[in-house]
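hey
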């Protein structure tokens, strides 16, 4: 299924150009009391929610996609984990461009590891990226984003696929500069997920997906997930060797070559095979 959040935290199923409102399925999620869970309750109870959705679909109200505001498909991820320089051509690009590396050594992902983005930076396709430091270069980075569905620690790569609930498109926006990656990539609105999430059973094999990004109609990035340095199982195994993974945690898998600057007024268009397409506007504060 393709699940989305829209408008006033409504839950929807995407079918073609329509959204079917199945918000009533959220009733199967148990109520939480303080202290609140450190995971996303929808993903933790996804099987029950999907079962309830099937009973609601025949009579679900419909809205056209262009009539709603798409939010991040996840409301409460515990962690946003990201993989730097996970495509070889982007590693070469980053090393060659001083505006990207800011006179710092660009180290291979196997040595530099992963990093975290603040969950407060998360938005959906219907919300704009707001440039925080207009005097500096602000870049787009398209990525496949994995949504963890089953908790785990020290997960073996051979078992990693079983821990995935869904997939979505990620935009890992970044401001260039001397600060640590986590700071420069955690600005409000600099973590985009959308336009919806595709459940793992519908996605099938995610290791050979074409994707591309354009800015104002100009093609900037085009690649395939088969070119990942650390593939999806390896990333999950690597992340879980440092962090306990919980339902709703997100892994941004890395971006290919072609990263470039955006400015207020630009429109970023991204498309992923088997997931879909979204447009994100860029504005000023």
């Amino acid at each position: 299924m393709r699940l989305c959040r829209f408008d006033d935290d409504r839950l929807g199923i995407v079918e073609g150009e329509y959204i079917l409102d199945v918000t009533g399925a959220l009733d199967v999620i148990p109520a939480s009391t303080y202290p609140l869970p450190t995971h996303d309750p929808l993903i933790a109870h996804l099987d029950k929610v999907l079962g309830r959705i099937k009973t609601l679909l025949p009579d679900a109200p419909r809205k056209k996609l262009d009539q709603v505001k798409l939010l991040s498909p996840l409301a409460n991820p515990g962690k946003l984990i990201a993989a730097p320089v996970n495509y070889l051509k982007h590693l070469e690009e980053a090393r060659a461009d001083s505006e990207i590396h800011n006179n710092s050594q660009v180290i291979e992902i196997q040595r530099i590891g992963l990093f975290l983005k603040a969950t407060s930076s998360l938005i959906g396709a219907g919300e704009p990226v707001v440039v925080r430091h207009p005097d500096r270069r602000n870049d787009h980075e398209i990525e496949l984003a994995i949504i963890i569905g089953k908790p785990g620690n020290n997960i073996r790569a051979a078992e990693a696929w079983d821990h995935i609930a869904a997939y979505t498109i990620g935009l890992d926006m970044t401001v260039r500069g001397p600060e640590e990656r986590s700071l420069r990539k955690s600005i409000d609105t600099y973590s985009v997920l959308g336009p919806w999430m595709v459940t793992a059973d519908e996605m099938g094999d995610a290791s050979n997906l074409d994707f591309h990004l354009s800015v104002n109609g100009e093609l900037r990035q085009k690649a395939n997930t088969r070119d990942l340095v650390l593939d999806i199982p390896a990333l999950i195994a690597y992340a879980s060797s440092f962090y306990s993974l919980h339902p709703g945690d997100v892994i941004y898998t890395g971006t290919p070559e072609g990263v470039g600057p955006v400015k207020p007024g630009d429109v970023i268009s991204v498309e992923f095979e088997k997931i879909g397409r979204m447009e994100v506007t860029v504005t000023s504060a």
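The CA atoms of residues 85 and 147 lie 20 Å apart. The mean pLDDT is 94.
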